[in-house]
Amino acid sequence: MTSDRAYHHGDLRRAVLTAALDTIAADGPDALSLRSLARRAGVSHSAPAHHFKDRTGLLTAVAAEGYALLADALTEAPDLRERGVAYVRFAIGHPAHFQVMFRPELHHADDPALLAGKARATDALRAGISGLPETARGDDERLAGIAAWSLAHGFATLLLSGSLDEPVGGRDPGDVFRALAASTFARGAGQDAARDAHQAPGHGQDGG
C-alpha cells in the first residue's frame, strides 16, 4: 500500500483501524506505533493522531469496536448456551479485538463508546442468565453470570493460545463449547435438585 493512496475522509479512520488490527493480530498490541501504522495504512504520519490523538486512543477505539461487535453477536443468540458459542466464535473471528478488549491498562476508561459497548455486552449476557431455569442459575444471578463468562472467556482464551489444539482436535469449537456448557450447568441444576430434595420436610423419614 503506497503513501500517495487517496482516501475519502471517512475511510482514513477505518484504514488506520484496519492496519492496527492487522498489526495486533500478527504481533500483539505492544508492537503498535502510530508512525508504523501510518506507513502500513498508506496515510500521512499525522493521520492516526488526527483521528485517535494517541496510541491509547487508538487502542480504546479498537476495544470499543470489539465490544460493540461482541454485543451484536450475543444479542442475536437465542439463549445463554448459544451466547457462549457466539462469544467463542467472536474471539476466533476477531482475535485482535479480543486481545485488546480485556486489557484495561491500554484504554481510556471513561471513553463513551467503550462504556456503551461494555454495557451492551454485559446486558446481553445478563439476559441469557435471566432466561435460565432457577435450578440452573441458583440464587445469585451475578455469580451465575461470572460462571458463564468465565467458562466462555477461558475456553476462548485457551483456544486462541493453541492450548486446546489436541483436546478439541478437528471438532467445531462451538460444538465443543455447547457440550461443556451443557455439562456444567446441568451438573449445577442436578446438585440444586438434590440439595432441595434433601432439605424437604420428611426427607429420610418413613413414608416421607
List the topology elements.
Blueprint: H1 9-27, H2 34-41, H3 47-52, H4 55-76, H5 80-93, H6 95-101, H7 112-130, H8 134-137, H9 141-161, H10 165-168, H11 173-199
Helix pairs in contact: 1-2, 1-6, 4-5, 4-6, 4-7, 5-9, 5-11, 7-9
Compact overview of the structure:
This protein has 208 residues and is mostly helical.
Describe this structure in words.
The chain has 208 residues and is mostly helical. It is built from 11 helices and no strands. It has 2 domains: 1-52, Arc Repressor Mutant, subunit A (Orthogonal Bundle); 56-197, Tetracycline Repressor, domain 2 (Orthogonal Bundle). Helix 1 crosses helix 6, helix 4 (55-76) packs antiparallel against helix 5 and helix 5 (80-93) packs parallel to helix 9 (141-161). It is globular.
Q: From the helix content, strand content and strand pairing, which structural class follows?
A: mainly alpha
Kindly report how far apart the N and C termini lie. Answer: 78 Å
State Rg.
22 Å
* CATH class bucket of the largest domain: Mainly Alpha
Biggest sheet architecture: none
For the residues shown, what is the average pLDDT?
85
Number of strands: 0
Strand content: under 5%
Reported CATH architecture of the largest domain: Orthogonal Bundle
Number of helices: 11
- The dominant shape is globular
Question: What fold name stands as the CATH topology of the largest domain?
Answer: Tetracycline Repressor, domain 2
Helicity level? over 70%
> In the residues, how many domains can be counted?
2
